[in-house]
Amino acid sequence: MLAAGTLGTAKLALESRDESSTRLPLLDNLISYVPLVGWRHIGRSVEHESLPIQLNVLCEEEPQAGVQVAPLQASLYGVTATLWNDILFDLPFACRDNIRLLKRLLPAMIVVQLFYPDPAREGNFVQLQGDGKLQLHYQERTLGKAERRILRAFRRLGFFGSPGLCKYPDPGNSFHYAGCLPMRRDPGPYETAPDGHLGDTRHVHVADAANFSSLPSKNLTFTIMANAQRIAAGLSEQLRAEG
């Protein structure tokens, strides 16, 4: 059973065939951060006896070319446990004034984190180089429409922000990669069956996110764990049946 992490698993699969011309797909959940301030909470004392809250919301996208688009998942986090230097230098004043301001702003701040879905795209791939290193290529996408809708919606709830304060980390900054050996009903080379079996191999099963065929709009930690457990349990039953 192979579970070296998406990139490690892909590299091992390519190295096993000494493949430097094959490009394998690469999936990545692009993320964005929308900071908001609830003006009614400015100046309140910071809560030290509990952890920051997390809530989830769905942001419905407008249809594109008449086709309904899947909603985006957004997670809302409190920031009272955030390191001050993560925010301090985004404020427009001198450092000393920013510190005074943060003392009053932190109890009023929340951050909305958006997760973007990712289907396989031709321009996003990994490829083994002649020197044995793995090249990653991921085309950047323009984001911002959903974030503006989030700002408008939360403004009606008394939370304010600005498009200029939204953060869009570069590709590769999400929590998990996936999709290099995608799952198919009838897998070919560098593809996996629903039970994790890697096509064109006898006994190799892939149990990490390399076998995801697409990424939904969500963080994937528990999904990856559940998929690995499912494949391991199925393989265990198969081995017991074979004696």
Largest sheet: 5 strands, antiparallel
Instruction: Enumerate the strands of the largest sheet in spatial order, edge to edge or round the barrel.
Output: 4-5-6-3-9
Radius of gyration: 22 Å
- The helical percent reads 10-25%
The class by helix and strand makeup works out as alpha+beta
**Net shape:** elongated
Q: What oligomeric state is this?
A: single chain
In angstroms, what separates the terminal alpha carbons? 18 Å
Helix-strand topology string: HEEEEEHHEEEHEEH
Q: List low-confidence stretches.
A: none
Beta-strand content estimate = 15-25%
pLDDT averaged residue by residue: 86
Tell me the number of helical segments per DSSP (H or I, 4 or more residues long).
5
Number of DSSP E strands? 10
Descriptive report:
The protein is α+β, with helices and mostly antiparallel strands. It has a domain at 31-123 and 139-169. It contains five helices and ten strands; from the N terminus they run H-E-E-E-E-E-H-H-E-E-E-H-E-E-H. The strands form three sheets. The protein has a five-stranded antiparallel sheet with strand order 4-5-6-3-9, covered by helices on one side. A three-stranded antiparallel sheet has the order 1-7-8, covered by helices on one side. A two-stranded antiparallel ribbon has the order 2-10. The protein is elongated. The two termini are 18 Å apart.
